[in-house]
Amino acid sequence: MNITETTAFETFYRTYRAYGLSIAYRMLGTYTDAEDIVQDVFAELAAKDPAVIQNMKSYIAKAVTNRCLNLLRSAKKTREEYIGEWLPEPIAASTDLPELAAEQKDTLSYAYLLMLERLGPMERAVFLLREVFEYDYAQIADMTGKTEANCRKIFSRAKQQFKGSEPPASPVDDEQRKAAVERFADAFLHYDPKMLLGLLAEDAMLISDGGGVARTAIRPIFSRDRIMRLLVSQKAYRDMRIWDTRITELNGETAIVFTSGHEVKAAFCFRFTESGDRLQHLYMIKNPHKLLHLRV
To answer: Cα–Cα–Cα angle for 68, 125, 149, nearest 5°?
Structure first.
């Protein structure tokens, strides 16, 4: 590379790195893998003549999507053998993903990422490229190697799977949600069953991810009574109560992180009820490999 080519490459990297990460993170649900994918794409791009690439943004989208598809297919067995429930890696508000402050923020929510987990790799790719990144079917066909007609069918099938399960739009504003999460943290830290019962929906669900490394419930816990009894147990989460607790933003939403020194040890993400005043789903991430990248 000469000086001119190096300058052009650096410009492309600064311009499109975050865009590539936005696609890869939603595709994979793991920020560390998303970073690796994007680095690989730009490493390959460094050996190319940028002049032969007609649309750099579409080139990045296609390259990232195909690498993600390959990774998801190869990781299928690993996911199936995963110990306990698999949850996405949460990302902090400081993460270099521009949509955290834009209108696509909802598509980075933790509940949205979990909905995407229902889809197979190709369904996920087509759905995201169409629904979130607004490519037309001809472009998606070129990126995925499918026909336009097939892409339409795949998108329709993926959309059908989401029917009725989208994170609800809530009449409660962010400040009220933050206050509810703060009350939850206080109730959890102080073994307060009465406050917990008032915060949890009747059919609440708690999903934990320890990855076989950290001690967590292997299967989801259903009903607010069972969740409350578990959360106020002096044995179950004794370690979390001695760590520092911080209310912060993960995936653009109010969450709780537990830290020891500079290390994030656990995180709680939430999905609220449609009314916005109760916690419907609680997601607890304790797998240390999914918390390494967090900057809070």
So the answer is: 135
Q: CA 45 to CA 53: how far, in whole Å?
A: 10
In order of their start, the domains of the chain are 3-162 (no CATH), 174-290 (3.10.450.50)
pLDDT, tens digit only, all 296 positions of the chain: 544 556 677 888 888 999 999 999 999 999 999 999 999 999 999 888 777 888 999 999 999 999 999 999 998 777 878 999 999 999 987 666 655 444 466 788 899 999 999 899 999 999 999 999 999 999 999 999 999 999 999 999 999 988 766 666 666 688 999 999 999 999 999 999 999 999 999 999 999 999 999 989 899 999 999 999 999 987 888 889 999 999 999 998 999 999 999 899 999 999 999 888 899 999 999 999 999 988 65
Q: Indicate the pTM of the whole model.
A: 0.90
